[in-house]
């Protein structure tokens, strides 16, 4: 046996969260709502297969949080598992942006009320900041994804097809399938 490369592990785990263009847009809208947005604009190019852009007027991302904003399992919503009992947000796991970074080129432009100007961040596949520059966005956040997201959907279809074939094989052999509930 051998350990999978980190990039492969990230892609495989991301395929559990990012399953379609709809799932990407849903995650980004939930992030916007959690940030207090009252206005959210969604733009898709080629039905979201080439570009997805979600812009909001929410709180924005604090500069101090920018280095970890797309790192998996970093979140501002909970500190421990006890906090799960009192959740009032849509997202809390810190997986959405990190998973999206695995399947797309991600640019995040953000500005808080305390900022004098917005900053555009270019992120790598692991959610690390590659570059940043001043920008002109008002308060809130814009996430732009330039993507070959079709690749991930093909990967999901492959896994679903393999699982279905396995289930058919078990049925043909008279084996009992046990599903966790």
Structural summary, described in words:
By secondary structure, this protein is an alpha+beta fold. The protein is built from four helices and six strands, in the order ααββαββββα. It has a six-stranded antiparallel beta sheet with strand order 1-2-6-3-4-5. One of its GO terms (biological process) is mismatch repair. This is PMS1 homolog 1, mismatch repair system component.
Order of helices and strands: HHEEHEEEEH
Helical region count?
4
How far do the termini sit from each other?
30 Å
Number of strands: 6
Could you describe the largest sheet, including whether it forms a barrel? Answer: 6 strands, antiparallel
Q: Class, according to the CATH hierarchy?
A: Alpha Beta
Give the tally of structural domains: 1
Overall pLDDT: 80
What's the architecture, going by CATH? 2-Layer Sandwich
Looking at the structure, the CATH topology is Heat Shock Protein 90
Classification by helices and strands: alpha+beta
Low-confidence stretches: none
Anisotropy-based shape: globular
- Helicity, in percent? 25-40%
Cα Rg: 19 Å
Q: What would CATH call the homologous superfamily?
A: Histidine kinase-like ATPase, C-terminal domain
């Amino acid at each position: 046996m051998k350990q999978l490369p980190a990039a492969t592990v990230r892609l495989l785990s991301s395929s559990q969260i990012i399953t379609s263009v709809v799932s990407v847009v849903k995650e980004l809208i939930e992030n916007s709502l959690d940030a207090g947005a009252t206005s959210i604009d969604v733009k898709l190019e080629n039905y979201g297969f080439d570009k997805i852009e979600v812009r909001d007027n929410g709180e924005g991302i604090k500069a101090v949080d920018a280095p970890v904003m797309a790192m998996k399992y970093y979140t501002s919503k909970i500190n421990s598992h006890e906090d799960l009992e009192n959740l009032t947000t849509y997202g809390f796991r810190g997986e959405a942006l990190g998973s999206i970074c695995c399947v797309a080129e991600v640019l995040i432009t953000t500005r808080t009320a305390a900022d004098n100007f917005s900053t555009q961040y270019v992120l790598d596949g692991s959610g690390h900041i590659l570059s940043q520059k001043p920008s002109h966005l008002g308060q809130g956040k814009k996430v732009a994804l330039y993507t070959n997201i079709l690749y991930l959907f093909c990967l999901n279809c492959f896994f679903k097809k393999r699982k279905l074939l396995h289930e058919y094989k078990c049925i043909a052999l008279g084996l009992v399938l046990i599903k966790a509930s």
